[in-house]
Amino acid sequence: MATRDELLKYLKAQQGDWISGEALSRRMAVSRSAVWKQVSRLRQEGYVIRSSPNKGYALSEIPEMLLPGEIGEGLDTSVFGRQDIVYAGEMDSTNRKAGELAVKGAPEGTLVVAEKQTGGRGRMGRSWFSPSREGIYASLILRPRLPPHEAPRITLLTGVAVADALLAATPLKPAIKWPNDILVNGRKICGILTESSMEMDVVHYVVVGVGINVNTRVFPDELKEIATSVYLETGRVFDRVLLLRAFLKRFETYYDDFLGSGFGSVEKRWRELGVVLGKEVTVHMIDTTWSGRAMELDRDGALIIEEDNGARRRIYSGDIQIHEN
Ligand code: BTN
Q1: Mean pLDDT for each 10-residue chunk of the chain (325 residues)?
Q2: pTM attached to this predicted model
Q3: Is the distance from the beta carbon of residue 136 to the nearest atom of ligand 1 less than 6 Å?
Q4: Given ligand 1 and candidates 100, 193, 226, which is best to mutate, with the most ligand atoms within 8 Å of its CB?
Q5: E-only strand ranges, the chain
Q6: Dist. CA 210 → ligand 1 center (Å)
Q7: How far is the CA of 28 from the centre of ligand 1 (A)?
């Protein structure tokens, strides 16, 4: 274990109480000045550590940050987030970075996290509002052994995992709007962007990017009516690390289940959480618009719409507007 991590482990074990510099240097088998160096490093990262010549050191505050060490501690997964966690205070886009790493051969489970994105990507060429330390902006690299036509199911699966994590970790009642918008009280709280590389019969990698509005307080005018956050819905600040861990755990469980036993149980859950099937909808695509009844979810994740004249259309991507009866 690195000296920094070891020091943090001992400080946390004290639960806010003092531990002497001498005890630390003995346990870690390093000099007292090496302990001091690591204390300075942790302080720079945002940990608040008190020091006293007689008592030693005491950890009094853990930063509200998505630091890899904090995510990894207590993370109950086998692969997701167990490989490298690539972290930055600021990044253009975690999806772009994860794609770059995937091309270089990064293994399944590699996680890219940022406190802020300057070029966060959304679906259909849009951007994703990513203010500093308010949301979760995370991308995971997957290397599923799947026929390429089944890969879109991973996007649906991710939506189910986010919705279940929000249900477990917050008092909210999320719903899924096809394909993968997570809504609370009709407003979007999370968006998912999957980007993959595949050939005719093989998937090289899939990057699953998740943006969750956790403690976002103010949205720009154009998003005010359509977006929300856990904070805006509950009036409480939530621990982003806990929510990210809860998501990774559910994501891995559903993913293993899908690859091992098929899509049945994920699809069942998707249907329970979904709010589109059976509704009159208008689908806005980049170049056209269709209206009709949302009839079915197809095997490959497409939504089947029936128009008034009985014609059926398969929709692969678009924004759904639901017409409540
Ligand atoms: C959407 O438009 O609904 C999808 C939004 C996806 C945003 C996330 S934030 C983390 C990851 N990195 C990106 O650049 N985009 C995704």
Answers
A1: 88 93 95 95 92 94 88 92 93 98 97 98 94 97 93 93 97 94 96 94 96 97 97 95 96 97 93 94 90 90 91 90 83
A2: 0.90
A3: no
A4: 193
A5: 48-52, 56-61, 85-88, 111-114, 135-142, 175-177, 181-184, 187-198, 203-213, 280-284, 289-297, 303-306, 312-315, 319-323
A6: 5
A7: 41
